[in-house]
Amino acid sequence: METVLFSRISIGIFGLSEFSQRLPSVLGAALYFYTVFRICGFLVLKLLLKDELSQSSLAKAGG
User: Fold this and answer.
1) Per-residue pLDDT of the chain (63 residues; tens, 9 = 90+)
2) How far is CA 7 from CA 1, 29, 37, 53, in A?
3) Where are the domains of the chain?
C-alpha cells in the first residue's frame, strides 16, 4: 500500500521513468538498513555495558 503511494509521489515529481519507479524501493531499503544498523549498535552497546558492569562488580566483590 505504501509502495504504491510513494511510487505515485515519485512519478508525480520525476515523471514516468524507470528511476521514478525504483526510487521508493531504494529509499525504503536505505531506511531499513539504517534502522537495522542502529538497532544492532544499540544492542551491542547494551551488551558491552552489561558485560563491563558485571566484570566491575566481580572485581569489587573479589577484593
Assistant:
1) 677 899 999 999 999 999 999 999 999 999 999 999 999 999 988 888 787 767 766 666 665
2) 10, 14, 26, 48
3) 2-62
pLDDT of amino acid 45 = 86
Q: Is 10 exposed, middle or buried (0-12, 13-18, 19+ CB in 10 A)?
A: buried
Q: Are 28 and 35 in contact (CB under 8 A)?
A: no
CB-CB contact of 24 with 10 (8 Å): yes
Q: Which residue from 20, 24, 27, 22 is spatially nearest to 1, judged by alpha carbons?
A: 24
Q: How far apart are the first and last CA of the chain?
A: 61
The amino acid present at 42, given as its one-letter code, is: F
How many CB atoms within 10 Å of residue 7?
16
